Amino acid sequence: MEKESGDEVIGASINKNGSIDYRATRVGSDTTLSQIIKLVEDAQGSKAPIARMADIITRYFVPIVIALAVLAGIAWLIAGQSGIFILSVIITTLVIACPCALGLATPTSIMVGTGKGAEHGVLIKSGEALETTHNLDTIVFDKTGTLTEGKPIVTDILVTPLITKENLLYYAASGETGSEHPLGEAIVQKSKEENMTLAKPDHFEAIPGHGIRVEIEGKDMYIGNRKLMLEQKIDLSSMEKESDRLADEGKTPMYLSVDGKLAGIIAVADTLKENSMKAVKELRRRGVEVIMITGDNKRTAKAIAKQVGIDSVLSEVLPEDKAEEVKKLQEAGKKVAMVGDGINDAPALAQADIGIAVGSGTDVAIESADIVLMRNDLTAVLTAIDLSHATLRNIKQNLFWAFAYNLVGIPVAMGLLHIFGGPLMNPMFAAVAMSFSSVSVLLNALRLRRFKPAVV
């Protein structure tokens, strides 16, 4: 991975060429590597819901086996067998019974599965998240920074007779100075490319989900989306056609009004990640419903969704309403995953059945998520789903073997075959069989180490 001056370098990275000077911003347990190790260890020590059945059975297993051994001894005593025969039956029954296999069935698979996920850049925070991912039928993608690169650029500057292009960019960039919103940053970056010296706003007011209001050089200005302009009763009719055209091209029109009159539009566009279409296409092929959620207007949102291959779009959604949209899908009976990277995605990530944070995202988003994708690659969502299916399948195999072993082994140890003229099981053979049952569960769990993502 190419790194340039000013880029962040993760500890334990290997520098293949040349030499570098770096500054430690995190040390000890705060480093990225330490956090990854902690997440994996926490996940490996957690329990999946499927383990509850095994835990309940294991809780009553030992007293039930002791009772069965005693009952078998009493039955053979009544049948007239010798004391040595009866003692052999009791010992064999107690030895062959194996709660270990039941206890190992789930945690071993989770341990291997979460470790394998970390190898492929998918950090699964808990066994519950690993199991829930298996049942997902709907995935909601945030647009900016998730489906797109999150690095928008200014593509068009359109003005009314009230202002020049240079002044429009000057006022807009001055207002957006210090903005952390990707669209605002794009406007400021454009002004830097034009070598502009910007003014400091006399007044600044952020209007969440809409834009900003600023005062610059005595002029009252609003910079933001269509909703903001309509709320301020700004007449947009003179640039309606141009705005629609830009939106149909997948660009986001940003309006600027000066003293209550429309001054112009700055169009901003963000490029799709190269793997977005591939991930969406594969999810849809598997029957998963894919939805895009964005604060963009309907025209822009539909144009971008069409490019990436998504039919269902939730547009003009305010940051604080994203979680509510996810909740509506859940109330409709869907198992929902939310994929996002920003601070405004955190409530939706927490609300979803599974929150998936892109590793390049904010700390808040990563903290709110159940799964973290360390690479900025959406095909890792498919890796998480495939790994969940593989791990759940492996757990079920382990549980089947553990139950089958005890259901067959205990009656045989109690003398079932001997009743029909067969041999009586030797206690030494019972000990070997008991050990083999635990080893077989471990070996089956280790098969997960051969897991490979279906989509790379």
From TrEMBL:
Superkingdom assignment: Bacteria
GO annotations of cellular component type: plasma membrane
Record's catalysed reaction(s): Cu(+)(in) + ATP + H2O = Cu(+)(out) + ADP + phosphate + H(+)
Single GO MF descriptor: ATP binding
Record's protein name: P-type Cu(+) transporter
Keywords assigned by UniProt, alphabetized: ATP-binding, Cell membrane, Copper, Copper transport, Ion transport, Membrane, Metal-binding, Nucleotide-binding, Repeat, Translocase, Transmembrane, Transmembrane helix, Transport
Enzyme category, top tier: translocase
Top-level taxonomy: Bacteria, Bacillati, Bacillota, Bacilli, Lactobacillales
